[in-house]
TrEMBL record:
Gene: SPRYD3
Entry-linked InterPro entries: B30.2/SPRY, B30.2/SPRY_sf, ConA-like_dom_sf, SPRY_dom, Ubq-SigPath_Reg
Species of origin: Iconisemion striatum
Protein name as it appears in the record: SPRY domain containing 3
Domain called B30.2/SPRY: residue spans: 1-187, 179-345
A Pfam match: SPRY
SUPFAM superfamilies (UniProt xref): Concanavalin A-like lectins/glucanases
Amino acid sequence: MDDVNMLHHRCLLNLRRRIRDGRPAQERYVRLQKDGNVLSYQGNSEEVGCYVAGHPLSKGNCYFEVTIVDTGVRGSIAVGLVPKFYRLDHQPGWLPHSVAYHADNGKLYNGNPVGKQFGPKCAQGDRIGCGIHSENLEAGLTNVFFTKNGKEVGLVEVAMSAEGLFPAVGMHSMGEEVKVDLQAEWFLEEDDGMMMVDSHEDDWGRLYDVKVSGTLLEYVGKGKSIMDVGLAQARHPLTTCCHYYEVEIIDAGEKCYIALGLATKDYPKNRHPGWSRGSIAYHADDGKIFHGSGVGNAFGPRCFKGDIIGCGIMFPRDYTLDGEGRALRFSYQSYTVSIERNHPL
């Protein structure tokens, strides 16, 4: 081939490549029925159905949401990000270079078929969001964050290919149905008075031998003596606007030495809540209430994996703050602390 023909051949190749690249990107899906923005599972509950959007997330479009219309038989719905040519017979998050939040167990799957506890489970009507922080896109890395009903659950750093990360939804049981919004927007809601566990350790005033990962608190101490206590204390106290919180026991460990309650800001770090003065707590292992003493009183049932323990304050009507908003003042000598098991206040 002479030089002129070679040049002509190259021009044709470049023209064809530009034409091909200019075509609208095609979304891909298998074992799913798509009706507008609604996806429904069409498999036999043994095979995965997966949807991958036609365009990756970017600085201009960095977030999407999936609303669970029906959880079907198992609620095996996954929301996350995958490479462009991800295998559609695998849930998002199972294969390398993909990440996903799974609704049925609240786990995060980050390129591995074995997930790690990450956030709460999701049910019918819940919205699961997924987005990227675009600060490090040029470096091939990004922080992928997930939300539930508009509140951030947590984030994880993920490597990106040159083609980017594409929104993906996986389903795996009969009757599952979701609505996808690829143009959704998300704005961080700030509420300084609210006790929350999210991806930021700054929301916790003190952490001793406790690791924070999303909404998960994990004990990482030695656990060999009575002094090896792990303590997580929120930065902000309960208030009349946010007077209640809950904890779900994901793993009871060896002895379920889990205590939930309230304590003063300077509470000793090596003492379970309730053991020392200025604290009160419900202990899951024996169902006893400890109120400023190392000896507890029978109070309620023992708690196990999957149980939800809640704690709140029933403030008196004349509750006020001091002039500078630093200390609590009551006209009564005490106020009521309500502690519940598997029952919100």
